[in-house]
Write the structure tokens for this entry.
Amino acid sequence: MSTAALHVTKLAAAKRQIQAAIRLFFLEEDELAIHTVASAAYGLLKDLKRDRGQSEAADIYRTAFFYVVRDFRRGTLPAHFTSDPSIMAEVERIADELFFITADSKLPDVKLTIPQDVEKQYWNENNRAANFLKHADRDTDGTLSLERIDNNRLLLKCCSAYQDIAPDDLGNEELAFAAFTAAGNPSHQATGSDFDSLVESMRRVPSEHRLQRCYKVIIELNAS
């Protein structure tokens, strides 16, 4: 009796890796293991976006610049920006160059390209920790500063990159991670949605127990 072989696409593989990395993140598993799994997914998404004519590095810069400039126009920049004259001088310089971004602009309407050397620099920096954890053919006695590991930020980038090209979402893992992120963001504006109810329930949980609560949310939703 023959059995059919199971196959998985690159996009499906990235999805499963991100979902697994989010669960590991909420379980507070080893940060190096989480980084390795999430970085593998991010690498796949980088290549899949490039195959579709998109640049993940350019999109990272576009998103960062867009929200800084838009919030500058709106007068809603956070205090750690507005209280630092040197930061505000740089924000004003960027805003002058990106004059086409207004207070009412939408991110999808803004296009941005970056030089090849800037893109290369982005990936060299982004992949430094992942490459250290993956290769030992060079610098076998090297060390890695754990300060370079920011799995929260990496998972945010993974979720965003997946949304750029996927026809679906990342399921309950993404929902819980988005709620976790919003719960820690004082500027998140509630609209009365079911998602906002989840965010508020997260905020009622002490911060030291919030990761555990998020994992329980995933398990409960996946079982329903």
In short: The chain has a mean pLDDT of 93. The CA atoms of residues 3 and 208 lie 47 Å apart.
